[in-house]
Design goal:
- The protein is of the alpha/beta class.
- The chain is built from 19 helices and 28 strands.
- The chain folds into three domains: 189 residues, Rossmann fold, CATH 3.40.50; 192 residues, ANL, N-terminal domain (Rossmann fold, 3-Layer(aba) Sandwich); 135 residues, GMP Synthetase, Chain A, domain 3.
- The strands form six sheets. Strands 3-2-11-10-12-13-14-15-16 form a nine-stranded mixed sheet.
- The model has no long low-confidence stretch (mean pLDDT 92).
Length: 613
Amino acid sequence: MLETTTPALARLDAFANVTDLLARRAAEAPEHVAFEVPTDDASSWRSVTTAAFLDDVRSLAKGMMGAGLTAGDTVAIMAPTRYEWAVADLATWFAGGVVVPVYDSSSASQVDAIVHDAGVRLAVAGSRAHADLLDAALAQAGTDALGTWTMRGVDGIPSLDDLVALGAHVSDAELESRRTLAGHDDPATIVYTSGTTGEPKGAVLTHANFLGQVLNIAAAYREVVTPTGNTIIFLPLAHVLARGLQLICIASGMRIAHLSDPAKVVPALAVLRPTFLVVVPRVLQKIQAAAADKAAAKGLGRVWARAVSTAVARGRFAEKQDAGHRRRVPLGLRVRAAVFDALFYSRLRAVMGGRVGYILSGGATLDGILSLFFRGIGVPVIEGYGLTETTAPLTGNLPGRIVSGTVGLPLPGSTVRISAEGEVLARGVGVFAGYRDPRHDADAFVDGFFRTGDLGRIDDGGRLILEGRLKDVIVTSNGKTVVPARWEGAVEASPLVQHAVMVGEGKPYLSALLILDPEQSATWAAANGAVLEPGSPGELRAIDEPLLCAHLQSTVDAANALVARSEQVRRFTLVLADLDDRELVTPTLKIKRREVLHRAADTIDTLYRGAAS
């Protein structure tokens, strides 16, 4: 199958722009709790109703207008994920502006480039450091800037309360006129891609892109996104997936809590007890690895291994039932599952709050066995796929129709096509019209479809299976073309490996850099008598640790067994890297392969020392 389409489920003509999502929800259920916001001591949470959120949004929008923001002006928001981010996002749209999200971890040069390219006029900062970066960028850009405001009071820098005060003279009628000014085809946001293979580009997403996604996804996932449910958003709100999820929740009445500190997520799960979570695959790997470590510490390693295999078998059987297989779960599997549920599964569900009905995994390919494991413990994982340029999700598995190892069907209103070269092409309600710099558009589209740069295929059921990045393809010196994604994904299934990077362009054989997970590798080293010097800020350093290398050899061997001989890795080296370095890792935790290869050039040379070209 070379093309698959899912018809749209929702019409957009009843909505003028994105602001109608909030306005209509507030009219329908003003007293419904829309947000849970941490108190100052972060030990408890306060509720914010939809009406109260709308009031906050309207007040800030008036302040922006009072400060001089005009329709079509751009507003930069640079802050960690938090309630005020949501207020600033919607307020900008109410004031007729265009939102320019900036990752809170961005460097000065990145902030300068975004502010200049987007022509930012007004900025909202999360801290003094963010305000300083934005102020410097605005000054350097030389635009008619209106200033920078912080989300909370900082000495010497005006706050959002000060900005709100500037709108005292703006009438409700003036605000309503501005709110309803933008149409479907007008820009809603300019999102700069995180740039794993090159410089970030500003993708212009329209109000129709967001409306199309929000209304169609809400219709497709009615049993997941409900007014009685709640979620915690801990992905960066600068990422379009988090903002799209937020809009879906606002429009559907699902409660939202924001967290930016990873250390606070697990305690919050027990308090807020979410019904739905969005995570990257690495989070699921760490949950499973933590459970394995606890079992091993209690001398239950072999029992845990049986529990894992039972969960996978249970998950696989559930998928068969989804597909129409009517056979009842075998008695032996039911008995084992009940025993392991008491020992392990129920505790894992409790760690996640005890109420999670579904988890959405995105941002990277999820290992199929890991997906089956979570299905087997009673928490189905909905894997999806999308990009900034598709306004986040393009495809997704659906409740009751999950197939592990795939990223599902096109979401309503979307079409996926596979090119002759195997590239995934996209068209639909969420697909953008182009970049801010039209020079980038020339290679971005073909026959009306957006070129994703990903390789994939469509199975007989119309589901998309990803097979790697087009730019990551390796051609060895003997002419063999290798797509590294499957091998790398298999190795990254090990909790000890954060990133696997296959190398071998123009070389006689394939090698790999295994970038270690700092926490898991340190724990393993301490438990096994290995010597592992801690990493340093900004470093990427090869290490020689025989015990750990021997341990991971089995992981490499298992990955080699999954691929053809010409795709197998002959040599590898272990690497410690600063995974907080945004020159090395994107804000969404994807490795910047080009930068890794550049920094590790000498290490890579040692892997081929003495080899014939």
